[in-house]
Amino acid sequence: MALLDSYQPGHLAPMLRAERHLARARLADHHGDPDAAASFTAAIAGVREHGTPYHLAHGLLDHAQHLSRLGDTKTAETAITEARGIATRLRCQPLLDRAGAISTEPGLIRLAPSQ
Q1: Which one has a higher pLDDT value, 80 or 102?
Q2: CA end-to-end span of the chain, whole Å?
């Protein structure tokens, strides 16, 4: 983060700026920051505009995990469904696996059958 923050405005690619905002949202969530939800909303908007579908799907899944912990299962399911659709279009099994591992029950993560 410090490295990316050291660049002057206009010297950092838009995708990197979007990913930096997503990383900040993840950190805010990790630290229990009450503004994490707003950070995720803004970061996802930036990744939609400047990121790749792959990065968007990961951001949506991070957001879904955050929402699940808050008990917002409906919105979490919406994010998981969108990420799963992206993963299917990309034929990216690791993303599909990750989407399948997220439970919308607060605080739970489903394990793959082999685990």
Answers
A1: 80
A2: 33
